[in-house]
Amino acid sequence: MTLGPSALLPLPVAIPLVFCAVMLATAHLLPGRLPDILATLAALSVAILSGMIAVHAADGPLVYWFGGWEPRDGVHLGIGFGVDAASGWIAAFIGVLYVLTFIFAWGFFDRTHGHFHILMLLFLAAMIGFCFTRDMFNLFVWFEVMSVAAFALTAYHLEKSALSGAINFTVINSLAGFLMLGGIGLIYAQTGSLDFEGIASAVGRGGRDPVVAGAFCLVATALMIKGAIVPFQFWLADAHAVAPSPVSVIFSGAMVSLGLFGLAKVSAVVFAGSDQVQHALPTLLEGLGSITAILGGWMALLQRHMKRMLAFSTISHAGIMLTALGALSPAGTGGMLVYVVGHGLVKGALFMIAGILLATRASIDEIALRGLGRGIGPAGFAMALAGLLLCGLPIGVLDQGTRLVQGALWHQERWIALAAGAIGAGLTGAAVLRATGRIFLGLGPDPGDEGGAPSEDEREKANRPLWVMLGPCCVLLAFDVGLPASLIANATPEAASAFMHQPSVSAKAEGPAWLTWISVALALAGAGYGLFRTRLPKLVIRPLRATQSVPTRALELLHSGLIGDYAAWLAIGVALIASILAVS
Amino acid sequence: MTPRIRVALLALAGVVLLPGAAAVITGLPPFGATIAQYGERINAITPEARHVANMVSAINFDLRGLDTLGEEFMLLAAITGTVVLLRGRRGEGNTERALRRPGRAVIPRSEAVVLVCRIAGPLTALFGLYVVVHATVTPGGGFQGGVILASGTLIIYLGEGYAGWRDAVRSHWLDGLEGGGALLFTLCGLAPMLTGAAFMQNIMPLGTFRDLMSGGLMLVENLGVALAVAGGFTQLFLEFMEETREADELDEPGEESA
Question: pTM for the complete prediction?
Fold first, then answer.
C-alpha cells in the first residue's frame, strides 16, 4: 500500500538497528576490523537514504504510518513519521558525521568486540528516529535511547573523571527524561492524542489552558537540557570533556543541536495553536539564548583543558541557535537549521583535532602542549581554519547560517540577541585561536611550573596513522567551506516554512556584513590578549584584569561538578520558564 | 555552593512552581474521568481487527509497535553499556569461565536449598514460557515472560553456586539470544515491507479470538522480545555477579561457593 518515496522512511532507522542486532549476536565471532567496516557501511547507507528522502520531501512532506495504521475519522491510531526537507537534510548530515567519525575512530575501539559500534549505531538510529517522528511518545522513546547509549559511551574510558562526568550526565539527562514524560502525560490527558497534528489541532481549539502551558514547560525544559541551555548546561562540559574524542564529535556535532531541533519542531508544530506559549517564546528564547551565548563563550576562554573549552564553545553556539528560534519566523528557523549543520561540521572537526592531540601528543592541556604541535602542522592549519570559521569568517555553511540568523534578528530589531551572538562567537573563536597559537606555534609565555596539567593524565590510543585521523577532519571542514552557497540559499526558505508548517514566504534577509567581522576581530583580539598579555603595557592590563577576576571566579564556583548544585539550578530553570509562561 | 544555599534555591524554585502546578492539576480532567478517545477507539477496533484479547499486547506489538522496538533497543543499549563498563576493567579475554579469588571461603549450599532450587527452577522457567506464549490472550507477554525466564536462571545460581551457574550459562549464548531476539523483532518490521505492506504491518493469518495462536505477526514479535529480554537480563545478572567477585577489598568475607 505504501509505495513510492514514503516507503523509504523506516529504513534509515531500521538499518542501523539490524546491523547492531547482528553485531551483538555474533560479537565474539567477528574478526578485527569487521565492526569498523560494518558500522561505516550502516552509517553510509543512513546518510544516502536520508539524502534521498530529503530530495523527495522537497516537493512536500512525506508521511508514513507504521503498521499501516492510518488515521481513521481524524483519530490518529498508530505512530507516524513525517519528514519535511529540513528534517531529511539534518538526518543526512548526521549520517555523514557518523561515517566520518567511524573512519576517525578506525581501530580505536577493538577492546570490546564491537560493543562501541553497537552503542554508536543505536545512538545513530535514535537520532534519525528523533528527526523523523511525528508522534510525541515516539519522540520520547528516541530521546531516551539517545540518552542511554550516550551515558555508556561517555564512561567508556572508565577513569575516575570519566565516570563522574558520566554520572552527572546520566542524572541530569534522566531528569530531562522524567520531565519530558511528565509533559507528554499532561498533553495526552488534555488532548487525547499523541500525534503532532492531533495535539496541535486540539491545542488550537482549546484556548488558554494551564495544562498545555505546563506540558510545554516540561517538554521544553527537557529539550533545553539536551541542548545545554543556561541554567541546564552544567552536565555538558563534564560529559564532553571526558568522553572519547569520537563520541565527543557526535555529542557536540549532533546531539546537543538535536535537542534544539526538537524544541524548534515542538514549538512550531505542536504548540503552534497556543497563544500563551507563542507569546512567551520570544522573551524566553532570546533571554536564555543570549545568556547562554555569552556565558559559554566566557567559560570557553577560561579553560586550559581543550575538550572542556570546546564543550563550552558548544554551549555558546547552542545559545546562538536558541536566539534564532526566538525570532519565531521561517527566516530565523531556517538560519538555525543551516547553523546546526555548519556548527556540527566545524565543531566535529575541532573535536577530531583534540583527539589527534590526545593520540599523538598524549595530552589535552593547552599549556602543557605549548609548542608540541609543531610536528603535525596540517592539524594546526585545520584548527586555525576551524577557529576562524567558528567566530564568523565569512565563508562556508556556518557563516551562511550565521548571516541568516542575524538577518532574522536584525529584521525584528532584537539587538540584545544580535550582540550576544556576536560576542559569544567571538569569545569561542578567541579561545580556539589562542589554543592554536600556543600549541602549534609555541606562542605565549613559557609556562614554567604551570606546564603540568592539573587534570588526570589522559591519552588515547596512538595506533592509527595521522592521515586516518586528519582525513575525516579535513573532509568535515571541506564540507563546511565547499557546499555551494546558492544551493542552500535556494532550498532554505521553503524548507524552513515546511518545517514550521507555515505557508512559504520568499522574503530572505541577511544581516549586515560587518557584524561577522566584529566577531572575527573580537576573536583575534581575545586570542592576542591571551597569548601576549605579558608584553602589553600595565596600563592596559590592570583594568582588564580587574573586570575579569570577580565574574570569572563566580562562574568557576558555579561549575562545581556537584550534582546537587546542578539539580538545584535545573529546578530554578523550570521555575523561570514557568513564570515567563505564567505572565504571558 | 553550600548545602544550605542549594536547599534554599530548590525551595525558591518550589515556591515559584507551586501556583503553576496547582493550576495544572485543577485544569486536568477530573480523577476517574472517562478514558480518552484514543483508548476507546483502540478498544473498539482491535479485537475485531487483530483477533486479540489482550489490548496491551495489541498496542505494544501492533498499533504502537515502533515504540516497543525503540524500547527493546533501549534495553539493549542499557545492557550493552553495562557490559562495556563492567567488563572493561576486567578485560574481554576472561569472559569464558568464572574468575576465582583465592582465599575466599567456600560455603557449600545446604541440601534443602539445592532441592528447592532444583524444583523451583524448572517451574519458574515453565511459568515464564507460559507468560510468553499467552501474550495475546492474557496479561503478560514477551517482556514479562522474558524477565521471569531470566530469573529462572538466577535460581540455578542460588542452587548450584556461582561456578555451576557459569557452567550452565554461557555469555556468548546470551549475546546470541539478545541480539538474535532483537534482530527477529526488527525483521518482523522489515519483512512485511517486502510484500509492499507497511513496516510492521500485521500481514500474517490472525487466528481465532482468545486462542493461543491469535494475533498473527504479534506472536513472532513477542517471541523476539522474549528471547532478547531473557538473554539480556541473564547477561546483566552475570556481569553484576562477576563484578562482586572481583572486588578489591580482600577482607570482605566470602559467601560464594566455588
Answer: 0.94
